[in-house]
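User: Let's play a game. I give you a shape written as C-alpha cells, and you guess the letters that built it. Ready? Here's round one.
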C-alpha cells in the first residue's frame, strides 16, 4: 500500500484496477451520453449522391442564356430519377437536397433569377464529407447529440455501448440521520450519498443508494458482503479516528492500494478492493467527498466525461495555499473583458457544502503556494 500520494499517482494506481465494463446494444434513441464500445465504419458515402446545396435551377455551366425552364419538372429532395438536361440553355428547377439531373454541373440561386450566375460549388459532391468504410467513431467515444446524428448518417440504427456500471454508495456514521427526520443533539443530516449518487448519474453510472451503516466492524462487513455491484463508494470512516471502521476493515480484511492523497480538502481517501470489487473510501466531510470524486473517482470511472475544465484565472481576492498539498479553494469564475477572473464568497471549511453551491470552480494551487490578488493561477471550472 502507498500512502500520501499525489492526485496523479492516486489516479494511476486506481486505473490499475479498472471497472469491468459489460456491453449492450442500444438504439440511437437510447444512446445519448453512452460510451461507444465498438469502432463504427460508415456504411455509405456522404452525401450518397451529388445534390443541390440551394433552391434554384440546375444548369450546364457552359450552357447559353437566356435559359429555358419550361421543359422540366421541379426536382425535389427524395426524387429518384431526374430528367436529363439535353439542351445547352436548359434550366431544371431544383430544391435543396435534391439529386442533380444528368447533364447539369452547376446551380443558379433562386434569388439571382434563372439567368443569374451558375455556381459549380453549390453542388454537394458524393462522398465529399466521408466515404463508405471510413472509421468515424471509435471505441470510447461519448455519444453526444452530434455523435448520434453522425451514427445515423452513417447508416446505424443500433450501436454497441458500455453497460452503465452499478456503483454502490454507502455513508457511515452513527451521527447521520436521513433527511426528513427530526434531529437530536449530536446528530446531523446525511447528505454525502445524495450528492455522490447525483455525480455518478451525471457521468453515466447507475447509483445504488444504501442506507447509512452503523459505526461497527460487523455492520460494515455485513453490508459490503451483501453488495452486488461493479464498484463501491463509501463516505466517512477513512481517517485516523477510533471509529473510522472503513479504513480499519480494509486494512485487516480487504486489499488496500493507497491511503491519503496530497490534496486539501480531501486528504484521507483510500482505494482498494473488497472481495475483488474496487472500493473508494471517501472522506466524510461533504466538500472533501465531492472534490475527491471530481478529481479521482470520475476520471477513473468515466474519463470521457470530465466534470471540470482547466483554465487560467486572475484572482481578485488573496487565497491561502496548503503545506505539502495541492490546494482546492472554492472560487467563483466569471468573464471580465477578455480574461477570466475569480473571487471567493464563503468560508472554506471542508464541512461547508454551501461553498460548492456558492462557487463554480476551485483553485489548483501547487503545494506550499498561495495567491495574491492580481495573480494569474490555474483553476478548475466545473461543468
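Assistant: Ready! My guess for every position:
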Amino acid at each position: 500500500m502507498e500512502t500520501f500520494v499525489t492526485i496523479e499517482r492516486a489516479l494511476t494506481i486506481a486505473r490499475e484496477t479498472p471497472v469491468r465494463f459489460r456491453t449492450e446494444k442500444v438504439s440511437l434513441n437510447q444512446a445519448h451520453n453512452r460510451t461507444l464500445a465498438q469502432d463504427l465504419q460508415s456504411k455509405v458515402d456522404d452525401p450518397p449522391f451529388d445534390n443541390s446545396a440551394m433552391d434554384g435551377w440546375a444548369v450546364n455551366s457552359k450552357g447559353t442564356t437566356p435559359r429555358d425552364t419550361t421543359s422540366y419538372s421541379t426536382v425535389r429532395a427524395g426524387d429518384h430519377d431526374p430528367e436529363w438536361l439535353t439542351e445547352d440553355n436548359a434550366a431544371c428547377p431544383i430544391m435543396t437536397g435534391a439529386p442533380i439531373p444528368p447533364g447539369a454541373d452547376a446551380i443558379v440561386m433562386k434569388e439571382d433569377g434563372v439567368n443569374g450566375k451558375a455556381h459549380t460549388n453549390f453542388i454537394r459532391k458524393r462522398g465529399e464529407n466521408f466515404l463508405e468504410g471510413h472509421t468515424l467513431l471509435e471505441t470510447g467515444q461519448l455519444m453526444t447529440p452530434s455523435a448520434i446524428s453522425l451514427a445515423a448518417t452513417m447508416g446505424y440504427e443500433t450501436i454497441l455501448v458500455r453497460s452503465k456500471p452499478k456503483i454502490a454508495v454507502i455513508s457511515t456514521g452513527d451521527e447521520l440521520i436521513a433527511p426528513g427526520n427530526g434531529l437530536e443533539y449530536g446528530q446531523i443530516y446525511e447528505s454525502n450519498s445524495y450528492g455522490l449518487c447525483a455525480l455518478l448519474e451525471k457521468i453515466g453510472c447507475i447509483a445504488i443508494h444504501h442506507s447509512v451503516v452503523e459505526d461497527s466492524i460487523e455492520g460494515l462487513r455485513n453490508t459490503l458482503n451483501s453488495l452486488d455491484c461493479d464498484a463501491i463508494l463509501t463516505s466517512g470512516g477513512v481517517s485516523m479516528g477510533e471509529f473510522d471502521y472503513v479504513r480499519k476493515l480494509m486494512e485487516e480484511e480487504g486489499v488496500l492500494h493507497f491511503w491519503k492523497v496530497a490534496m486539501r480538502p480531501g486528504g484521507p481517501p483510500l482505494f482498494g478492493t473488497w472481495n475483488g470489487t474496487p472500493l473508494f473510501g471517501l472522506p466524510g466531510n461533504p466538500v472533501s467527498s465531492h472534490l475527491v470524486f471530481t478529481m479521482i473517482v470520475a476520471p477513473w470511472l468515466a474519463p470521457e466525461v470530465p466534470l471540470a475544465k482547466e483554465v487560467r484565472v486572475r484572482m481578485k481576492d488573496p487565497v491561502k495555499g496548503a503545506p505539502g498539498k495541492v490546494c482546492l479553494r472554492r472560487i467563483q469564475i466569471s468573464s471580465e473583458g477578455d480574461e477570466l477572473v475569480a473571487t471567493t464568497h464563503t468560508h472554506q471549511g471542508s464541512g461547508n457544502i454551501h461553498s460548492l453551491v456558492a462557487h463554480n470552480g476551485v483553485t489548483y494551487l501547487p503545494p506550499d503556494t498561495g495567491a495574491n490578488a492580481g495573480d494569474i493561477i490555474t483553476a478548475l471550472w466545473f461543468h
